[in-house]
Fold these 2 entries.
Entry 1:
Amino acid sequence: MTNTHDALIIGAGQAGPALAGRLTAAGMSVGLIERKLFGGTCVNTGCTPTKTLIASAYAAHLARRAAEYGVSIGGEVAVDMKAVKARKDMVSGRSRDGVESWLEHMERCTVYRGHARFVSPREVQVGEDRIAAKQIFINAGGRALIPDLPGIDRVATLTNTSILELDTLPQHLIVVGGSYIGLEFAQMYRRFGAAVTIVQRSPRLIAREDEDVSASIKQILEAEGVAMRLNAKCIHFEPRGAEIAVGLDCAAGAPVIAGSHVLLAVGRRPNTDDLGLDKAGVETDARGYIVVDDELRTSAPGIWALGDCNGRGAFTHTAYNDFEIVAANLLDGERRRLSDRIPGYALYIDPPLGRVGMTLAQARATGRPLLVGRRPMTRVGRAIEKGETQGFMMAIADAETHQILGAAILGTGGDEAIHGILDAMNAKMPYTALQRAVPIHPTVSELIPTLLGDMKPDPAHD
Ligand SMILES: Cc1cc2nc3c(=O)[nH]c(=O)nc-3n(C[C@H](O)[C@H](O)[C@H](O)COP(=O)(O)OP(=O)(O)OC[C@H]3O[C@@H](n4cnc5c(N)ncnc54)[C@H](O)[C@@H]3O)c2cc1C
């Protein structure tokens, strides 16, 4: 027998539940299918658990620095990994339960548990249930990419999911991948007390950022004792007694290091390989991401794709914004588009990096004349007072229109302070308007007008 709904949502991640809320409130009957954990990656294996662990790591770090603040701990700082994990499980679990209970009690919403696969453009199979709907929304998310590197099947490795189950301290954690996920785990585990080495194939960390950002982050992590092996061109694995040997380079430097645990953090892949998309006529690109237009419509009429599975964003806020775009267009008669979104994100090492708009490299590639401002955190009062002066802030504006093109704040409070610039960009305010604001003292944000007031023509422009 086929169950029929007005709309069907595959995945209870960051877009699906909110969309179910809007569609049911509009009077539609909705079927929502989740195969595993309600709340998806962010709540269970991504943002929430990692930021909760990072908070524990920060507490340990600050405790070790206590004497710098005139505070005496009276002994060694110890980290109880079981308690750290229990705190993380509690925070994550509450959030997951909240999403699940919300959906379970949502009027006109039927929750199905199991793996969904299309059997036709309007029908999905979930276990014994066949479910049909005129409109189908895919919010299937992604998972860790397991790279096809030599020897990978001969050793036990961790992903962002399995490392969250650890309740003991690795003796030496080797993190393969020097981007957002890898860096957060690297610093966190170093602060918990493990030896940590980051192994990265390219010459610098987070290569999509500007070089000065990569260099500063490297400095910050190295100062805490995180070892780096960049330019590791020949990454391979082999068992070595109780340890795992990771091969690095075939040409220069120590060819191999050994560690007790290896975390693979080399990227993500979409959960689209087992969705039966061919039965629905939904096109994917070469990497498996569902191809969508500017309003999140797939190649199949009546089917939308939201969140990480469409490859147009890789964050919780982009997945949620996909929901906002689809809901506004379907229910509110608006015409919102993906291309209206200004990219913004944070990297939650400590101090964090808040990023919006273009990098300097991207802004230069547009060929327009630029104004660029830069200020080290050593000249930000709030950072000095907190004893956290690593990093810098920078901003870029179009020299002719005065529109802000991008900014980065790598420094204490950078993940929050960057929103002043993000909001100004969304409001399409010229940077000169921000200079008239009267910011609160002492904050990191109060230096933003100063930073903008001090912008100089980009020396790279001829
Ligand atoms: C370690 C880590 C840290 C992160 N930190 C941050 C951060 O600090 N800030 C941030 O913005 N982003 C962060 N992210 C990214 C963020 O988690 C994702 O961008 C976000 O969760 C994407 O949401 P989504 O709704 O697209 O997919 P998901 O959250 O992945 O949800 C998809 C859901 O669909 C379900 N599903 C998949 N296939 C099927 C199927 N066939 N049938 C039924 N159900 C299915 C899955 O079980 C899952 O519950 C982090 C990611 C990781 C891995």
Entry 2:
Amino acid sequence: MLDLEKLGWEAGSVGELDHRLLTAPHVKLRSAIAGEHGDVVYSVDLRITRPNTEYLSTTEFHSIEHLLLAGFRKYMLDHFISVAPMGCQTGFYLVLLNEGDAQRICGVYENILNDILAAGEVPYARAQDCGNYRNHDLALAQVVARRVLADRSSWLQVV
Ligand SMILES: [Zn+2]
């Protein structure tokens, strides 16, 4: 049995919660699944906006997705499996292999958001790398990144 509190996740914050109670932005462990050889897959919610209250535009969403993808490849290559948009347009699903430490994940996320503020372009925004390469806007993504960073101290409080 994994000790999720030891990894820095608040008791009661893990798993599926009533979306009406969720605050944002937050970083929340959705699940941790151990395989028979001891490897663990962690699924983490990077919630950006409050559910049923506010949504990212498809352009904001798309550019942030690309920037997060580049960032997790940069900082967590050995653990990073994927980052994918939530269909409700309020956040992203992050999937990691053998890295479930809340502070470490938040530290990398913070680095990535700071990198977004300093970025000169949206990565992989070319027709050969993207399925809708015209639908990007770095400035909009930077506004969102700045907002998420402003609440850094409360990312692990999810309700
Ligand atoms: Zn794309």
